[in-house]
Amino acid sequence: MCGGRGTRLDTAVEKPLFRVGGVPMVDRVVDALAESGVEEVYAATSPNAPATSAHLDVPAIETPGDGYVADLDAALSDDRLSTPALTVAADLPLLDGEILDRVLAVHEGGSMSVLTPAARKRDLGVSDDTTFERDGREVAPTGVNVVDETGEDAWLTDDVRVAVNVNTLADAHVAEQFL
Question: What is the Cα gyration radius of the chain?
């Protein structure tokens, strides 16, 4: 998922192309997917990120750029995709193949959201704009999900590789400390 506006990052560079540790975040995510057991990689792009679309060396699925959920729905309606599908946001520069394989290993069918405790994000010093309560705990989505047509499950992890989304310049500085 790499077609968002990235307005909170407050930079002239498209968010997926923002460099963390000298490397565009989207490249780090594509590399993590290549290191994992994922067989096919598609980039969900939009008119909001034309330079990202031009930069990528993987097949793209053009979405309308109307927000994460609308763009995800548009991407999943593409005939090239089938479910279950692993979805990954482009703002996760600490991802690697090992954590993605772990997500796939704990997936037991149906849809699954990868969540992290909101307190973990605060302890790390990264933004936690979107939180909600699940099983009595305040949690935050990580940007990694398995989407299927049935069920709804969640995996809670405090792993820094999925807990650090880069939404602000301060988040980017935190991410760089872990590279």
Answer: 15
* CA–CA separation, 83 and 171 (whole Å): 32
**Residue 50 Ramachandran class (φ > 0 left, ψ -120 to 50 alpha, else beta):** alpha
Q: How far is CA 54 from CA 5, 21, 50, 60, 139, in A?
A: 16, 21, 6, 10, 35
pLDDT for 18-77, tens place per residue? 999 999 999 999 999 999 999 999 999 999 999 999 999 999 999 999 988 899 999 999
Task: Tell me the C-alpha distance between 111 and 83, whole Å.
Answer: 9
Alpha helix stretches (DSSP H) within 62-134: 68-76, 97-106, 118-124
Establish how many alpha carbons lie within 13 A of residue 131's alpha carbon, considering only the half-sphere containing its beta carbon. Answer: 17
Query: Which pLDDT tens digit goes with each residue over 110-152?
Result: 999 999 999 999 999 999 989 999 999 999 999 999 999 888 8
* Distance in angstroms (rounded) separating the CA atoms of residues 24 and 56: 11
Longest dimension (CA), the chain: 44
